[in-house]
Amino acid sequence: MSFASQGFGPEIVRAVTECGYDKMTPVQRKAIPAARKGRDILANAQTGTGKTAAFALPILQQLQDSPKMQQGRQVRALILAPTRELAAQIAANCRDYAKHTELSVAVVYGGTKMSSQTAALHAGVDLLVATPGRLLEHVAENNVSLSQVEHLVLDEADRMLDMGFASELTRIMKLVPPKHQTMLFSATYPPKMKQLATQALSNPVVVSVAAQNSTAETVSHVIYPVDENRKLDLIVELIGRKNWRQVLVFANYKESVDAVVAELNKYGVPADACHGDKTQGARRRALREFKEGKLRVLVATDVAARGLDIQGLPYVVNFDVPFLAEDYVHRIGRTGRAGERGHAISFVGRDEELSIAQIEKLIEQNIHRINQPGYEVKDRTNLIYEVHNKQRYTRKRARENNPTDQSAGERQLRARKVAKKSGR
To answer: Where is each Helicase ATP-binding domain found (predicted)?
Structure first.
């Protein structure tokens, strides 16, 4: 199925052709016809499936079909994304799609001065890409109005909820006129997503391109049991001895990210970090050098890496097992794309066995274990049996919030607040 067959004008067809798009991906084939009709959409689609074009192209065509005089501070279409990296990426794609039209595209996110974004908003924008927090800052400063929004997209909505943006999303949806088109895209569909979907959507068309919470069949999953204090040694040995290249490593905390980068660099493996303490420029530079092959390893927290699009990525390593099983799906979704083989490797300490059990239950498969010589751990057979079968484990819920970019001080402050509330 071609893009021209969906009624796109010659300007947009020319743009997508120049982007190298030929045939539609599954999510595009299912979502675009309904989106072109103005229907609300609830889509289950992971990063790398072509979902940006699935929601952006129909919006741009509808804006092109009904041109309006540009009004200051007004926005006609709004796309919300959880992180500045993803927002910047979506905006870049939208600019490519709209380059042969007169439509304006702008992006606002935190980490940069508001003044640099204000001029574009004051002039009025056809399509605005934004992170929720920064958008509301501009609303409070009267730099932008959402009273004329015709199209609203919540991209990676599950991640926005995980990051604590539920109240911000509710506030934004109240600022948008009642009559508008809403499209909600999510890689996973936990219970709290159902509440958001009910709140945001009206008689939506449901689009699913994979089983919920599934992982690509092209990805092989392995676990390396290892003592926590040997993880740094193991990652250096595996990447060095096996000569892995283009390795994206995830850690749960900024301190862990920095430790991994320092250890790899010490042994001559080019690596850099991507987390919340890094400037936007530093993060962009690290990603660019990683894509160009100047870096063999990019180490990141979940928040910083959300939405990173890296073509042909062969390896994803979980230096720390994610706190939420759904985050495992998000992390490894960056490898094994477009039919290529991918490898998902997880280092599992004794205290992380429960998280692995929850991941295996979510993805409905047992993950193969490899005992690396020289890194043997005490037998965990009884522990593994317990976390899969004993009630005290099976009834235990995973942490609902992943404190990915918290500093040690922030975690200590949080712990003190909890202790104070409990009377300790």
So the answer is: 32-207
